[in-house]
Amino acid sequence: MNPHGKEAPIYLSPHFDDAAFSLGSQIVSAPGGILVNIYTRSAYVAGPYETGLPDPADVDRISALRDHEDASFASRFGLKRIHLGAEEPRLRGRGSRDASGVGDDIAQIEERLSALVLELGADRKAQRLYCPAAIGGHVNHLATRAVVIGLLDQLPRHVSVSFYEDLPYARSGEVRRRGVSDLHAALSGRRLRRRSWPASAAKLGLINLYSSQHEAPVRSLRRFSPRALWPLWPHEAVWDVVG
Asked: What superfamily does domain 10-241 belong to in CATH?
């Protein structure tokens, strides 16, 4: 899977942009691996919030646009992409933080994502699985996290699991505090250790590849760094499962 014969991490990205926004610097520093995009049927672009069911033609157009943006990102860093084709909340008539929809979102992906993760994890090059921590409470992130938590005891011993701090949601101190607390509660009985690294200047370019998600070009990494006590500078962070 990795053309250089090195480790091939698995990145679970609920939406096309989540891996780049949350782990772009990590991917720049260690190219290669598998990028699993999960809820890829979308009607979201930056701009005024719209309610109601979107026009199917708009869904096709926007999904294709976001797919194209993500393909540019993946091709730069040797990522093999896999799409599951699940639907974002608006396509199912609900909001992105409507907790009542988590069960439906799990049902959309559980069988396919579980089988895929176990299959990919069987390759000994796949030594780390990156999963969203669900900071921000987006139901697609919560559903992805729930499926992975359900697989922790089934994954091969050589696969380590890291829950990444979702950006830009983790930029808010209060949102991040609630999200980290919720992550620990969801993983009750398991020990977690935070690990961080500086965000590279190259990450700005990656963020701007997803131009459909910004009303104007992003000029600073300020929105794409967790609001943590330490480190103070722009960074990315994960919570490793260590026990």
From this structure: LmbE-like (3.40.50.10320)
